[in-house]
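Thread: quick sanity check before group meeting

JM: Hey all, I'm pulling together slides for Thursday and realized we never actually wrote out the predicted structure for the chain we discussed last week. Dropping the sequence here so it's in one place. If anyone has concerns about the input, flag it before I start.
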Amino acid sequence: MNAKDVLLCAGFSLALPIGQTLFKFAAVNQARLQGPLLVKLVTNVPLLLAFAWYGLTALFWFYILTRVPLSLAYTFATVGSGLVPLMAWLVFKEALDWRFALGYALMLAGFFVIMQGQRAG
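JM (edit): ok, ran it. Output follows.
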C-alpha cells in the first residue's frame, strides 16, 4: 500500500464521523421543525447536508476500492467508526467511560496488527 492509498483511506476514515455528526445535527434540528414529517425532512438543512456528504463519501469510497483491496481499505473504516463516539463526546457532550477507551484501544491494536501484516506481506 503506497502513501497515496494510505492518505486516501485515512481521509475516508475521517469522513465517516463527520457524516455521523451531520446526521446527529439533523436529528437535533428535526425536533425543532414544525409541520408534517415530509415537510420537516425536506426543510432540514443538516439532513440534506448529511445526505450530500454521504453521497460524496460513497464516491470517494468507490474510488478507493479501485486502488485498494476491500479487506485492507475496510480496516481504515473501522478506525473511522471508532471516532464517531469521540465526536459525539466532543460536539454533543455525550458521556463516554473507560470502556470506550479500552474498546477503541483494542480496535487500534487490531488495526496496527493488520497494517504490520500488510507491510510484511
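AS: nice. The chain is about 85% helix and 0% strand. Residues 3-120 form one domain.
JM: adding both to the slides.
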